[in-house]
Design brief:
Length: 152
């Protein structure tokens, strides 16, 4: 009877630990999905709500000469640009390839294809860093690659 009780307690603790890990991962996915839903709906208020106050955006691309370029984009300008788009115009489709969490830090790797007005525009990979602030995940940093070749 004691062995059965110990096994039951161990199983319960393990299940709770797994559930918490899945919950953190699901919460990170939800915030990232909210960002892309806000982009698709051209909703600047919803878009602003997913970012931390000190968030950073960067994109990696290639110049016409083949040199690597890293561009910084202020969050306010990104939100303003998205807010000016027609609803449904900006449609970024992602795949969650990996999510890692440790306390208040999360990292997500998401290959994507970006469609503008229904046409494939470019593709690449997003790397997200999220921070849990006041018990909510916020996007602190995004760096992405952008290319027109080799897209799905």
């Amino acid at each position: 009877m004691i062995k059965y009780f110990c096994v039951l307690i161990a199983y319960s603790l393990l299940s709770n630990a797994v559930a918490r890990a899945q919950t953190a991962e699901d919460s990170v996915k939800a915030v990232i999905n909210q960002m892309f839903e806000a982009m698709k709906n051209a909703d600047p208020v919803a878009l602003k709500n997913v970012f931390a106050d000190s968030a950073l955006l960067q994109s990696i691309s290639r110049s016409n000469e083949g040199k690597t370029i890293v561009r910084n984009e202020p969050i306010a300008e990104f939100i303003e640009l998205i807010g000016k788009q027609p609803s449904g115009a900006s449609d970024e489709r992602i795949i969650f390839e990996s999510i890692k969490t440790d306390g208040s830090l999360a990292s997500a790797w998401t290959p994507y294809a970006f469609y503008y007005n229904g046409q494939l525009h470019h593709c690449g990979v997003n790397s997200f860093q999220l921070v849990k602030i006041n018990n909510s995940w916020k996007i602190q940093y995004i760096i992405d690659t952008r290319r027109k070749e080799g897209c799905p």
